[in-house]
Design a protein that fits this description.
Structural class: alpha+beta
Shape: flat
Distance between the termini: 61 Å
Order of helices and strands: HEEEEEE
Helix content: 10-25%
Number of helices: 1
CATH architecture of one domain: Roll
CATH superfamily of one domain: Head domain of nucleotide exchange factor GrpE
Largest sheet: 3 strands, antiparallel
Radius of gyration: 19 Å
């Protein structure tokens, strides 16, 4: 328990320091994909969010004042398809 508490205290201190330096954390979950703010790692079929929107976030983006200092690494949602014919092997 002491180890976990120590990690949490360190993370809180780090967040406080970033806030004091005007570094803003940006969570893009559910937002439209923007290549200026996001780095798409992959795409995935989903009905949870609209196609072309951020489905999952691997790393959040950070901004210093108005300048992006790290883009978010994300998975982008695509339309679901009812056919899986592309995945099945072709018959000869």
């Amino acid at each position: 328990m002491d180890f976990k508490r120590g990690i949490e205290m360190t993370a809180n201190e780090f967040r406080t320091l970033l806030k004091a330096l005007n570094v803003e954390e940006i969570d893009p979950l559910g937002e439209p994909f923007d290549p200026l703010l996001h780095e798409a790692l992959s795409s995935e079929e989903s009905t949870k969010v609209k196609p072309g929107h951020v489905l999952k976030v691997f790393k959040k983006a950070y901004r210093l004042h108005d300048k992006l200092i790290r883009p978010a690494q994300v998975v982008v949602a695509t339309e679901t398809t009812s056919e899986n014919s592309e995945d099945s092997p072709t018959e000869e």
